[in-house]
Amino acid sequence: MTVQPNRNDSLLGCRCVSGRRIAMEPRVSQSSQMHTLRHLCAVRQVLAVIFRLIALTMLGLIPAASNAETVPPFSLDAPADASRPTGASPEASQMLDALQHRQDQIRQRASTATSDAQLFELDALSRRVAEDVDRLITTSLEPDRAKTHAQLDVLGAAPASESAAETPAVAQQRSVLAAEQLQLDAEIGQAATIKENLANLSAQITRLLHNHLKDQLALRSDSIVSAAFWAVAFHPDTADYQRLRDFNAQIQRQIQSTWRTGQRVATALLVLFALAIATIGTRLLDRASERFCLHRLPEGRLRRSAMAISTVFASVATTVCAVDLLYFALTRQQALPATLQNFANELIKHVVTCALVVALGRALLCTRHPSWRLPAIADPVARALRPFPWTLAALLLFSGAVEQINRAIDTSLQITLFTRGAVALVVALTIGMSLLRANRVRTALAAAGESPEARSTLAGIIHAAVSLAVGASLIALLCGYVSFARFLTYELVWFDLVLSGAYLLTKLAHDVSESVFSPCHASGKTIRHLFGLQDVHLEQVATVLSAVLRSALMLAAVIALLTGGLGTTPGDLIDSILYVLGGERLHALNIVPAHIFSAIFTCAVCLYLVGLVRKWLDTEFLPKTQMSSGMRASLLTVFSNVGYVLVALQTFSILGVKWHNLAWIVSALSVGIGFGLQEIVKNFISGLILLAERPVKVGDMISITGIEGDIRRISVRATEIQLADRSTVIVPNSHLISQNVRNVTMGNKTQGVVTLALTFALNVDPEQVRDVLLQAYLDHPSVLDRPAPSVIFSQLTPDGMTLTVTGYVGSPRIAVDTRSDLLFAILKRLRAAEIPLSIARTVVVRSMRDVLQNQEPDDRGPGQIDPHALSAVSESG
């Protein structure tokens, strides 16, 4: 629908001054009676459209009686602007060519305009060119054509017969005048075409300016407390009024097509059936879901979360069915026009959104069954908040219908800002009143001595954020930032919808995971017997699955908050999530979403096969070979690592990943390795070297940095060493490569050494001691005959002589026990032979006071000590 510009009015009926403030100026009528009549006509048209919308969406298709079309549109003439002065008029053809060139320039500049000032300037230029075209037609072309036509009338028609032939001069004059008339008609037609093109161009510029201004959040208009803001409701623009009447006429024609004779019964039945679905059907579906949850689901929290989700599903499903049935009743006889089709599509989305608001309110408050309520809300608070979801949904439905009407008929900026401000004010006040009422009930509970519900930190943050958003919306409306206030309120409603839905879905995911894998339920028992799992494994699977599902839902909620808005359909939300998750990087990797399930299934099967083959090698094949236990463990570790790498490659191959596109992954890994993963990578490479070169292996007895024990396991990162006290020390693989390691069992796999160093007194016969020590070693059953035990005279000091005896045993692991047995036997043999060990000297120091007290008196002066008295400091052996 082309919007005809009004030359007597400024663009959009608004004027721009400094600060980008748009002042709403009510137009001055000629009399108060004309004001009243026009206001009544506008009110009747608006009410007629609203009632028909209600008939289309909720109540039925009965056409509302309206005689609005009998009221002629009222035109209020504003004082015309003074024509701009012009000089001598050029030739008409040259003037038309100049006007056509100016029109082309305006069109070219409008296609590249990016600011409001440019659009305002171009609109003013187009109006001036249109005025010049009108002036050319009225002052030059039409008078010339009238003059030429009068001259032709004077000459009369050409004679029909040759006998009545006229003079050549008259015939030539008639021919010239006819040619001039044809040229003037062509020029007038060209001027009319230019004028029509300018009107269309002005309408396009106006529409661009409308859209540009409507989408600006920083656009400032009059405050909602000013009279200028509300004046547009009492003095609507003539163009908006005419568009509203045209839209009303389209709705009437569509309703009449379904309500004519012969179609009324079917239409009424469809409407009644839709109403029954929306009311009775919702109640029946709720009761059916309640019975299913109570009798079919296991006891526990799953019943509550399933009941809440079923409540939401029942309300939304029945609303969608009812709206689709009403849409079918409207369009079964005549298809909707393009304008009504777009309006109906957007309105259906809004109706479903309002139904979702009501459904989430019912599910979260759950006033019918307080024991089934999921959030921690006190029952008095829930009862106080019960009417607010319905009120908010009704206000959103009404405001959404009005905004869709504005969008369908392309109303002026004043009407758009007025409706947005009214919608933002009503929604903000509704949400604010619900918060105030809930706080008042909680305060009353606390004053009565009853403890209010426990609130988490996250709930407190959300409550504070909602309160701040409501306050900011009201402040923005008071300051005149209507678009920003409307944006805040709509985003607030969308924020509440997304968080409420995410809360219910996360609760359901957690409860389903715990119930399905619970050992107490039939499903958990079936899974346990089918896969041979233990109860602890079921709990682990339930925990991991719950965490994965809740993380995915929270990620989807964040994406919905960032990319969606009020009126977003589930299909649009899924497309947004897929677009965000499947960004340019994943598209470059050639990952197809349909292949993800195949890749996951293949990865699980391959991992199971790798584990099965590893178990077969460990328990059946390798024990039948002649390999040592260390070699078998190394082979199993290498097989597992290679198998996991092949599984990863196969998974990426099924996903469709092209390896030449993984350069960015390698780059990221190189950066990570350079900063924080270098120790992990170093240990991984060291583990591969240990498995390949096998300087140490499983079963070896090693000693490193004071740690001595048997190697029990070598993994890709660390090595486990079991000490003599059965404790385990985990040593990084890089230490076994970079440090000195003593491998006791590497060179001599069957023998150990037992060495004892004993010190004897100097008066003992060393040969007798040697015989006793050798005989003790030879008599012990664990000491080997070859190599034979030996005794070495290792040291001679004033304190005694030291003899070192050495013997070999069958294994290093029995050296400690053999050493202990030999010490017991040698001590017993030395006592029997009366051979003492060296006794360490004991130094006894007395105090100087005792020395002085024991000193005999003589001729020495005070402070002098007898040297013999120092014998008190003596050595005893």
Automatic annotation (TrEMBL):
Alphabetic keyword roster: Cell membrane, Membrane, Transmembrane, Transmembrane helix
Region (Disordered): 854-877
Transmembrane segments: 46-65, 265-285, 306-327, 347-366, 417-436, 457-478, 547-568, 588-613, 633-656
Residue span, Mechanosensitive ion channel MscS domain: 680-745
Residue ranges occupied by any Mechanosensitive ion channel MscS C-terminal domain in the UniProt entry: 756-836
Cell membrane as UniProt keyword: yes
Major site of localization recorded for this protein: membrane
Gene Ontology terms for molecular function: mechanosensitive monoatomic ion channel activity
Ranges for domain DUF3772: 190-249
Subcellular compartments: Cell membrane
Signal peptide per UniProt: none
Similarity field: Belongs to the MscS (TC 1.A.23) family.
Protein name (Swiss-Prot/TrEMBL): Uncharacterized protein
Organism the protein comes from: Paraburkholderia ultramafica
